[in-house]
Amino acid sequence: MKMTALDRVLLLLTGLLAAYQIVVGIDQLSTAPIIAYTIAFGVLLVAGLLLIILGFDVLDSPVVVIVSTIIPLALSLGLVWEHLASYRILYLIFTISGFLAVSLTRAIPMKNRERVSTITIAVVHGIAGMTIFLLPIILSAQGVMKSAFALVGIGGAIIGIGGLLLSFLKAGKPILSKNTILKVLPGLLLLMATCFVAGFKFG
Fold this sequence. Notes:
The chain has one domain (5-202). By secondary structure, the chain is mostly helical. The protein has seven helices and no strands. Helix 3 packs antiparallel against helix 4 (88-107) and helix 3 packs parallel to helix 5 (113-141).
């Protein structure tokens, strides 16, 4: 599917929001969350630029599954490290293990590899996505954070949906048709980035 001018504009705006978040939006946090958020938004920025330059064909690369896993894992790690101190090490172990599991099940030949990799992706994305979705909303509801912080949770739901769509597409088991996924992807990425930036800034 050919990328339209509107798609490129939406992706450019997504990249600008990601760059803003890296430069301005996380400068008052502690070291570990800054590193995690920088990785997440940095990958989002690079992914957006690659899509603009190379078009949707870049999604045919096997690296896409791994990249689409880094963003939710890094974001959820930043949130857990910042707000759930007692679970920091446990979640760090999950983040590293999840990333390695997704990478290895896509790279190493094995029996039923597609099935194993699909299950692995679903579990890793599911846990990371639910963490990004639920934690900000719970913190907002409890009054620990301002109500606007719930927007981070909405962004988490969007990134979870987008990540699963891309991952299952690459795994050969698409939830929606490829054309439908490519049609909504730029807008989905922009909406996600907007929710994250607004949630972190005003929450």
